[in-house]
Design a protein that fits this description.
The chain has 214 residues and is of the alpha+beta class. Helix content is 21%, strand content 28%. It has two helices and eight strands, in the order H-E-E-E-E-E-E-E-E-H. The protein has helices at 2-27, 189-207; strands at residues 42-50, 64-72, 77-82, 94-101, 106-114, 122-127, 136-142, 154-159. The longest helix is centred in the first third of the chain and has 26 residues, at 2-27. The chain starts with a helix and ends in a 7-residue tail after the last helix.
């Protein structure tokens, strides 16, 4: 009974613990006390704009910095740092959150989230599929942060999965006349070695039969 446990149950237990450890590393929420922030070489600024119903005389307020996210595209680790700007008012139900270009006054990527969910949610940065692609393509927001998030706004980096590659056919080779050559038909055994049979027949004919005078 003990040997059966060691050979069957124990390996499964080790594999389960290894899997849970890898998942924990992928979904862990990092804080300033856990590691050196200098290991996150890239930083982006998130902007927020409360969606106040527009009136004919009052323009909507411009987006203000909501916080910064430092991230590492190689390790997919990220850390959110709140901004010193005022948070969106709690009496506004919806807030637009994302990447904003203050020069062109246009949103690069944005998502609408419930204002009351911002404090405990998680902002996800979506990168391209290439390993060397560090540019944030778009952002998304999850109202409930991943397991392990302790208060505040969480941040995660998600890399897009590589799409299927097309299967390319062989290039078409044309002959001197510009036409596709006819496929070569493999010869049969007789077509390949007919000359051996012909030589054997000629040898038999020319050699003659046995000498009758002897």
């Amino acid at each position: 009974m003990r040997s059966h446990f060691l050979t069957t149950t124990l390996p499964l237990l080790v594999l389960s613990l290894t899997f849970l450890a890898s998942v924990g590393r992928a979904t862990s929420i990092l804080t300033d006390d856990e590691f050196d922030v200098s290991t996150l070489p890239y930083t982006i600024t998130l902007y927020a704009s409360p969606l106040i119903p527009s009136s004919g005389t009052k323009a909507p307020p411009p987006p203000t910095p909501y916080g910064t996210i430092s991230y590492n595209p190689s390790t997919l680790q990220a850390l959110f740092t709140p901004s010193t700007s005022p948070s969106p008012p709690a009496d506004v139900p919806l807030t637009k959150l994302g990447l904003y270009d203050s020069d062109s006054k246009r949103w690069r990527s944005a998502v609408v989230a419930a204002t009351e969910k911002l404090a405990g949610g998680c902002v996800m940065l979506h990168l391209g599929a290439g390993e060397g692609d560090q540019e944030v393509r778009h952002v998304s927001f999850a109202a409930a942060g991943p397991e392990g998030q302790i208060g505040g706004v969480g941040a995660r980096v998600v890399r897009a999965a590589a799409g299927p590659r097309p299967v390319l056919s062989q290039p078409v080779v044309l002959d001197e006349s510009g036409k596709e050559p006819e496929p070569e038909v493999e010869k049969t055994f007789l077509q390949k070695y007919w000359w051996i049979f012909l030589a054997a027949a000629m040898l038999i004919i020319t050699s003659g039969g046995p000498d009758e005078g002897k």
